[in-house]
Design goal:
Blueprint: H1 5-28, H2 35-42, H3 46-52, H4 56-62, H5 70-77, H6 86-97, H7 100-115, H8 120-141, H9 150-167, E1 172-173, E2 187-188, H10 189-202
Length: about 200
Amino acid sequence: MKQSLRAMKKEATASALSEAAFQLALERGMDGFVVEDVVQRAGYSRRTFANHFSCKEEAVVMAGEHFHRIDEYLEMINQLPEDITPLEVMYQFIKMQLTEEVLGRIYKIIELSKTFPSLKPHTLSLLNRLQTAAQEALNELFKGRYPIGYNHFLAGAVCAAIIPLLDGSVRVQLPGIHLEETDELIISFDEYINSAFTYLREGF
């Protein structure tokens, strides 16, 4: 599952463009820049931008997709016990993928989408790609060992638990993110994830 040199180059180009768009969005807001600003900052042409993104909103949101590739994840998982379950694999997947950097970026993107609604459809697609990556990893590891749909439902359940902590509907202290003081209880990111997986292991 190793990427080809061409695929890696394409990914690097998309990453540079999305990083430029993301930084411009943070600096100026979505109304304060256009695609031409993005390509100038990243050092690419508009044609190259169009080969990767349909609009500046899509480019901004893609900056939150700094996930480990599936082959890196599978390499890590292969070092775990052979009898590991899909649920425990998902636990490792979330801990590996949702680093402080990724969480911070996704949080900022969701905050931007509250002010600029044009980002919302693309934000949902970002979370969907995280779910798809998890499902593909499970399918690769547990070929034919679980009923059809099992990995899909498991990945969906876990990723659905992630959304409330990112959109602010649950008071979770994300690494590197300052929350305003209120009377509402705040729990840490690790506490939230561990609680979610305890429910999944033991039932509701």
